[in-house]
Amino acid sequence: MSLAITVHGSNVRLAGTVDVQTAPALRAELTELINAAIQGTELRVDLGAVSLVDSSGLSALVGAHRLAEAKDTRLLLTDLPRHVARMLNITGLDELLYLA
């Protein structure tokens, strides 16, 4: 399984699977972006082309959210496919994470 991560400024586009194999790369990329962001910045993560998110992927997103909050940055998840939105709803993470 693979994950393509494309960064354009403060916009990140994900395509593929966010799972146990790809979550570490996503976590590293988001950490780097958040640490480099100016306070008050909004980082947008487009999940429109994500085919699967497992618990490791959710953990990476929650960890990035918490780091962003600590750095006064907003991590906004956009273009959620139905299966991702449903998973966030079932786990209650739709109440924690910023979704558009």
UniProtKB/TrEMBL annotation:
PROSITE patterns: STAS (PS50801)
Domain of life: Bacteria
SUPFAM superfamilies given in the database record: SpoIIaa-like
Pfam families: STAS_2
Residue ranges occupied by any STAS domain in the UniProt entry: 12-100
Entry's family note: Belongs to the anti-sigma-factor antagonist family.
Name of the protein in its database record: Anti-sigma factor antagonist
Organism (species): Actinophytocola glycyrrhizae
Lineage: Bacteria, Bacillati, Actinomycetota, Actinomycetes, Pseudonocardiales
